[in-house]
User: Fold these one by one.
Assistant:
Number 1:
Amino acid sequence: AQTVTQSQPEMSVQEAETVTLSCTYDTSESDYYLFWYKQPPSRQMILVIRQEAYKQQNATENRFSVNFQKAAKSFSLKISDSQLGDAAMYFCAFSFGNEKLTFGTGTRLTIIP
Amino acid sequence: EAGVAQSPRYKIIEKRQSVAFWCNPISGHATLYWYQQILGQGPKLLIQFQNNGVVDDSQLPKDRFSAERLKGVDSTLKIQPAKLEDSAVYLCASSHGWSNRNTGELFFGEGSRLTVL
């Protein structure tokens, strides 16, 4: 069974600064997907960034980038130039093939003006 | 395109009562998921449908929870009788599923928040 661990229940960052959220996972599979989802308060969960395990290049989406270390089973999210709208719960998630997402427990990110 | 629709957004019931949640996925999405998100935790899969068939319901408490997707489109999740520990947000999500259009991404609705008193 796959597991996803987020060891930082809460993080805070000054507006315009950079923050990194950590995630580790455990799987015996070699081809899978990893995701970071954002869940603002009382709003729906949306995809932030996606990484395919067979790709060595780290995914980037504007101010969001990941550091994917397959051997270490680590998948961290870096948010650059943090904005007030980035405040939310961030969930790391794993998916194998066409199967369900397995989520971590989440990291609550606070942006300090 | 329209997103995943869920109703009701909020529901308060007494323990031992019943409740039903409805979900309409994104048009054309073959796979539909129901997740339970307890406060302070990550979402946990309750059931996964591929069209109108169940792919995974291993974590569904079948003595009190049931779900159906009769025509392979919208779905209903029912809890009967409810317990205090069922207080949670019930998230519905959909994806392209078993097709070459599948990117592994799930699209979520806004959720239905259940409070059991």
Note: Chain A has a mean pLDDT of 93.
Number 2:
Amino acid sequence: EAGVAQSPRYKIIEKRQSVAFWCNPISGHATLYWYQQILGQGPKLLIQFQNNGVVDDSQLPKDRFSAERLKGVDSTLKIQPAKLEDSAVYLCASSLPGNTEAFFGQGTRLTVV
Amino acid sequence: AQSVTQLDSQVPVFEEAPVELRCNYSSSVSVYLFWYVQYPNQGLQLLLKYLSGSTLVKGINGFEAEFNKSQTSFHLRKPSVHISDTAEYFCAVKNNQGGKLIFGQGTELSVKP
């Protein structure tokens, strides 16, 4: 069974530029999460989807971050414009409906210079 | 809302010694509890989970954890660690109503020869 796929693995951009990350969850997983993990900290939930609807986006900085999950499968997370403090690893995870564990991708490491 | 506190940011230990990584949580409703491990430059991998039933749960790589409802704790233990156990460990909690998966700050386990 294929795992959660994320791309790119690494990205370096200048502040004020825009960037997008892509996630393909495990087939059949209705729940999809995007987390931000700053160096030395635990993952922070940015947004949670159930199919293509948003369940929780309370910690998503909506003035610069956006996310979508068209057709309830793949998802993209966008930052525009990026700030230095956005430097982090962005993790995508997916799970089956209900209260099972989440499966994580390898993450995208973003460096904003 | 729920929260997770990992009481130790770093735990150094010698090879073949026992180890305990401490985790406390708070929640107004019943929860599900998880421990994840993160190796450098990788995503998170599930070690074990508590959903219901026996309070002692066994996971991969010889790890186990005990759910203590009265003390709201879910400490992770291993009787004898290996060099390869060196990694970051995260405790996570999710309420039983399909809520957010919330992570602690992480504990860096460093196993020395």
Note: The radius of gyration of chain B is 13 Å.
